[in-house]
Design a protein that fits this description.
Elements (H helix, E strand, L loop, with lengths): L23 E2 L10 E12 L10 E16 L5 E6 L4 E6 H5 L18 H11 L8 H17 L6 E7 L9 H16 L5 E2 L8 H19 L5 H8 L2 E5 L2 E4 L6 E7 L6 H14 L1 H24 L6 H20 L5 H11 L4 E5 L6 E6 L5 H13 L3 E7 L5 E3 L6 H9 L1
Parallel strand pairs: 4-6
Antiparallel strand pairs: 1-7, 2-3, 2-14, 3-6, 3-8, 4-5, 8-9, 10-12, 10-13, 11-12
Length: about 425
């Protein structure tokens, strides 16, 4: 939940939920007295890392490793509880104590949220017993929850028990903090009656409601990151794929879901240092670096064209183009100075099995994605995972282009999520 939103910081899934009008249970301003299950995806940058800082196009996509939230009405009207088993945090507050903070936080969720202000964050830090300079994952997650709870629920603070469990690693540049903020915003807006609850589970909210969820999730991201671009929470809200350029975020209509192998090298890196290094190279060698950044921009544009042309299913030729774009971009990223020996080992390992990989995010270690064609033999993927695991890397077979924030029934939750909720 403390991912660096390195960009400075909507989509569509395989069932075409984006354009679907659904029947909803409209709840007005009443509190919902029922258990809710909500999830939101992580994100990866498909193409455009670092070039986007210099005005080029970046493509961000929903990652089908998700953050799941369970909300239950409290056993009484006296407490609110947040349980974050991934980081070993479980806190409970008396609503009577929180009520005194409400006048400093409540504004209308029907309009664009205004916060968080420095004064509001200072109030929360004092209340929670955190120092003003706190930056650890637990403290920032708790502050974001308290801010959203007080701001969205307002005068009638509900008694709630919330558990948030994530498939996403924290601090890996995969949008874990945004998925957290999106899930909490959606659950609180629904339970407080600010958005409706779809009558059918696993059906999305309306566009107006998704916009409201996104605007509140953005405030949660501000609590955590200070000055996010809004890309991560937009992907978490709408899913699918989006195009980011010069501060503008636009959904890419009708993109296919792609299978990938996501690998975390577990090598820490400083996003700030990497971004500064690219800038220094650009100032020193403008005639060399500008064409490289322009080429990365062209890669993003070509990738978008191929994805939109292959919505009904990519052909073998289109997969080949995507693989070539991945290889070219990875070489470019090495040229601009954001590669790392750990990423070189990863690319060599996957290439030896006929696969194509590139870093995703800031580079200098961190994560990489490997495109998997639909006809790939499971034994090949297993062999690659085994080899990468021997390097100490973490691997997940998953997909990109995943759906955004969604409401679920308990029976539709993945087994690992159900187990984690039962233990919480």
């Amino acid at each position: 939940m403390a991912d660096a939103d390195w960009l400075s910081e909507r989509g569509r899934d395989e069932s075409d939920w984006r354009g679907m009008t659904v029947a909803c249970t409209c709840v007005g301003s009443m509190m919902v007295d029922r258990e809710l299950f909500v999830s939101a995806p992580g994100k990866v940058i498909l193409h455009g890392e670092h070039a986007v800082v210099h005005g080029k196009v970046a493509l961000a996509v929903g990652l089908n490793l998700r953050t799941f939230l369970r909300l239950r009405p409290g056993k009484d009207n006296g407490t609110v509880e947040i349980n974050l088993p991934n980081i070993g945090t479980k806190l409970t507050w008396k609503i009577s104590d929180l009520q005194a903070l409400v006048p400093s936080f409540h504004n209308s969720p029907e309009s664009k949220p205004l916060g968080p202000s420095p004064e509001q964050l200072d109030f929360l830090k004092t209340f929670a017993g955190f120092s003003n300079g706190t930056t650890d994952t637990e403290s920032l997650a708790v502050l974001a929850f308290l801010y959203l709870y007080l701001s969205i629920c307002g005068q009638a603070l509900p008694s709630l028990e919330i558990v948030v469990w994530s498939q996403l690693p924290t601090g890996a540049g995969l949008g874990s903090s945004a998925a957290y903020s999106v899930s909490i915003a959606a659950a609180l807006l629904a339970t407080s009656g600010k958005i409706s609850i779809p009558a059918q589970e696993n059906i999305r909210w309306t566009q107006a409601e998704l916009t409201l969820i996104n605007s509140w999730a953005f405030q949660g991201e501000k609590v955590i990151h200070g000055n996010p671009s809004g890309v991560d929470n937009a992907v978490g809200t709408w899913g699918g794929a989006l195009r980011f350029q010069a501060g503008e975020i636009n959904p890419i209509e009708r993109v296919p879901v792609l299978e990938i192998l996501l690998t975390n090298t577990c090598v820490p890196r400083s996003t700030k240092t990497l971004v500064a290094g690219v800038k220094d190279k650009l100032l020193k060698f403008p005639g060399i670096m500008e064409p490289v950044l322009s080429s990365i921009n062209a890669i993003s544009e070509e990738c978008q064209r191929v994805l939109q042309a292959g919505v009904e299913g990519l052909t073998i030729e289109q997969y080949s183009v995507l693989e070539e774009l991945i290889d070219i971009n990875q070489h470019h990223l090495n040229v601009i100075g954001v590669g790392h020996p750990s990423l070189d080992r990863l690319c060599q390992a996957t290439t030896s099995h006929g696969l194509h990989s590139k870093l995703t995010g800031a580079g200098g270690g961190g994560c990489a994605i490997t495109l998997l064609r639909p006809d790939i033999e499971p034994s090949v993927v297993d062999a690659v995972k085994q080899e990468l695991s021997a390097y100490g890397y973490q691997c997940w077979r998953t997909s990109i282009g995943a759906p955004g924030v969604s409401l679920h029934s308990s029976s539709m939750l993945p087994e690992d999520v159900t187990r984690s909720f039962n233990k919480a």
